[in-house]
Design goal:
single chain, 336 residues, 11 helices, 19% strand
């Protein structure tokens, strides 16, 4: 199968390209940036351009779309719609032009909203930010494409927060604070989070190239869900951080501090690691139901604890008590 991967030069995309390569697939990477890992298989382009996507996807059998504006500090806000929704329109236009009948789309659990416990695929979407709203709208664009022809296959994957080696996202930033010994808990830390390891999700995304016709929607997370304080405890144990701060900041004060940083960011035009949105997300319950994923027969390659060990050993080798090669992966089964 020849696959066009849209947005394959980033964190998840690079690991996905490696997986497709290992599985023997032909692929082309279409991204704003040429892939450092697979430069000879990359085309520089804009996901908003149907013309560029049509040219790039000619002769391909399937499209995997990873491209998205997703950061909290995207400006102007219209970029979420332009890239995430406009890109979806451009992609289905290219698929129709080239007779491509198979699309895999990575959406997000952010469309369920904040403080959602065990949100399932049939839960009513209540996105709290432009990113979640734009991803929900993009799902609608792809679903309309799939519904227009019974021979088409659309697999929508809704990942929870993805972490892993080489990522500088939420889990890395949290681990960095913990390793410094200056971490301050905001709130009680009893809220739970669903997380996904990059080494697991890329195998699952690749498996959806064999999804049946019609529309398939599944959440993706590595279980069990951890409370923030339990995650902190694991990070401290794995990084051997014993002299850790026990200071806890009430949630209201934490959010107020976030607004101060928001104001400073606007005035100085600098990006700060703290914002009101990030504080709210940190302290919120964000768990998703993965019964559909489990019932499909999927089994993760790595347990969540193994995944955290591997990530910490790679990113914080001086602190980590384990080696990234010290865990043995389970058999990866990603059935249709």
């Amino acid at each position: 199968m020849k696959i066009l991967v849209v947005g394959g030069s980033g964190f998840i995309g690079t690991r996905l390209l490696e997986t497709l390569h290992e599985q023997g697939h032909e692929f082309t990477n279409f991204d704003r940036h040429i892939s450092a890992r697979f430069p000879d298989r990359s085309i520089a382009g804009d996901v908003r351009s149907a013309e560029e996507l049509t040219a790039a996807s000619a002769g391909h059998d399937a499209i995997i779309n990873l491209a998205a504006e997703h950061r909290d500090d995207v400006s102007p806000l219209s970029l979420y719609t332009e890239v995430n929704v406009g890109g979806a329109h451009a992609l289905v236009s290219a698929a129709e032009a080239n007779g491509i009948q198979r699309i895999v789309f990575t959406s997000t659990v952010a469309l369920y909203g904040l403080d959602k416990n065990n949100a399932g695929e049939d839960s009513i979407p209540e996105p709290f930010n432009e990113y979640g709203r734009s991803k929900l709208a993009a799902e609608g664009v792809f679903s309309a494409w799939a519904n227009a022809d019974a021979a088409r296959s659309l697999a929508i994957v809704r990942p929870s927060v993805v972490f892993g080696e080489g990522n500088r996202g939420n889990v890395y930033n949290l681990a960095k604070q913990v390793s410094s010994g200056r971490f301050i808990m905001v709130g009680k830390g009893e809220n739970k989070k669903s997380m996904a390891y990059v080494g697991n999700i890329v195998g699952y995304i690749a498996s959806r190239l064999d999804a049946p016709t019609g529309i398939e929607i599944r959440n993706f997370a590595d279980k069990p869900d951890l409370s923030t304080k339990d995650l902190i405890a694991i990070l401290r144990d794995e990084m051997n951080v014993h002299a850790a701060s026990s200071v806890r900041l009430p949630l209201g004060l934490g959010i107020a501090a976030g607004y101060v940083f928001d104001a400073a960011a606007k005035i100085t035009r600098r990006t700060f690691p703290i914002s009101a949105v990030r504080i709210r997300k940190f302290a919120a319950d964000t768990t998703v139901n993965t019964d559909r994923l489990r019932d499909s027969g999927y089994t993760a390659t790595y347990t969540l604890h193994e995944a955290l060990k591997r990530t910490l050993a790679s990113e914080f080798p001086a602190n980590s008590v384990s080696s990234s090669t010290g865990t043995t992966p389970h058999t990866d089964r990603n059935p249709s």
